[in-house]
Amino acid sequence: MSESGVRTLTDTFGRIHNNLRISVTDRCNIRCFYCMPADDVQFLPREDLLTFEEIERVVRIGVSLGINRLRLTGGEPLVRRDLPILVRKLAQIPGILDIGLTTNGILLAEQAQQLRDAGLRRLNISLDALDPEVFRRVTRRDGYEKVLEGIEAARAAGFSPIKLNAVSVRGLTEDQIVPFGQLARETHTIVRFIEFMPLDADSQWQREKVLFAHEILERLQAAFGPLRPIESAVAEDSMAADSGSLLESQKPSQARASLLPIVADSKAPAQDFEFLDGRGRIGLIASVSQPFCRSCNRFRITADGKLRNCLFSLEETDIRPLLRGVAEDEAIAQAMLASIVAKKEGHEINTAKFLQPDRPMYSIGG
Ligand code: SAM
Ligand code: SF4
């Protein structure tokens, strides 16, 4: 409950949740190794997916509890038929200030304009490599050219700046960092490097495979000179102070002092940097080495209607029976409030207690 008496999705640590990430499908047209099994993926039966009307209802109830930002994800959201119709419905809900979408870009060339027209304003396109061969090794599918076409279509449709998400994996994507830096400098593109998280389908994740944000920054600085944090200040109170002791032992202490800015928007997971000459911007999402749990404002719903209060949550709340039964909106609101109250302080990746969730990323919604 806020001071004004309005109910909010506030957890026991005082974090207010205004950001709902909605998975619209668990299906996908590629098979990134860090997210999905290579073959024989068991997808949800179609009737298990929330309908557009059910999603709309969840969002309206969420808005009454303070949700004002949405992100559509999956699986690959663009394989969900008629997605622009859903975007339009959600964009029309009073109280929604922002709708974003995360996509692998393969179907974007066909849909970018329709999505824009429907009210989508923010788009993140996932592309882990500029080398087509490395793209293939990551995704285990073809499609690199289609992603590039999708990026161009997004630009043409008016999405600006284009944001690319690049998962960074040790032993695989190091050589992509500098070319991505070049791309950020030469085009109006923000490249956001994401640390590889333990959410793969085959439980192959190992800490040794995480290419840490500070290492990425060091490579970029070696190639292009210093980068400065945007709207940030190096401070003792950095979110990095939350990260586990394991991590601290892995980082060069000198790097720690110079590479740990706080972003002005303390809720944003990406730490943004710009090149000193003002040409180009990059982001680092240090989910493993510098968890941003302390400022987390995210709530999630899976494609089959399970509320998740954390990406790494081991428990979830199934609201599909409520949506498909005779439950009043208030019962669904109570389920949302209870899920948030049960939220833990952090995901504990950096502790021995960490347990990887049963659901891999594609079935949670990244
Ligand atoms: N299919 C869409 C896409 O790839 O953009 C949306 C869903 S995907 C699960 C959302 C984001 O999560 C993508 O940027 C993807 O690269 C990222 N992701 C998936 N598995 C990950 C992992 N194990 N660690 C870090 N990021 C991951
Ligand atoms: Fe599909 Fe996105 Fe997962 Fe890659 S990261 S397999 S594109 S859902």
Outline the structure in words.
The longest helix is centred in the middle third of the chain and has 14 residues, at 144-157. The radius of gyration is 20 Å and the shape is globular. The two termini are 28 Å apart. Helix 1 (52-64) runs parallel beside helix 2 (83-91) and helix 1 (52-64) crosses helix 11. It is α/β, with parallel strands linked by helices and 366 residues long. The chain is built from twelve helices and 14 strands. Helices cover 30% and strands 17% of the residues. It has one domain (19-364): TIM Barrel.
Keywords:
366 residues; TIM Barrel; twelve-stranded mixed sheet; 12 helices; binds S-adenosylmethionine; binds iron/sulfur cluster
Structural class, from helix and strand content? alpha/beta
Q: Which fold name is given in CATH as the topology? A: TIM Barrel
CATH architecture: Alpha-Beta Barrel
Task: Give me the CATH superfamily.
Answer: Aldolase class I
Number of helices: 12
List the helices and strands and how they pair.
Blueprint: E1 19-23, H1 52-64, E2 69-73, H2 83-91, E3 98-103, H3 108-118, E4 122-126, H4 132-139, H5 144-157, E5 162-168, H6 177-186, E6 189-195, H7 213-224, E7 227-229, E8 232-234, H8 245-250, H9 253-258, E9 261-263, E10 271-275, E11 281-285, E12 298-301, E13 306-308, E14 317-318, H10 320-324, H11 329-341, H12 361-364
Parallel strand pairs: 1-2, 1-12, 2-3, 3-4, 4-5, 5-6, 6-11
Antiparallel strand pairs: 7-10, 8-9, 10-11, 12-13, 13-14
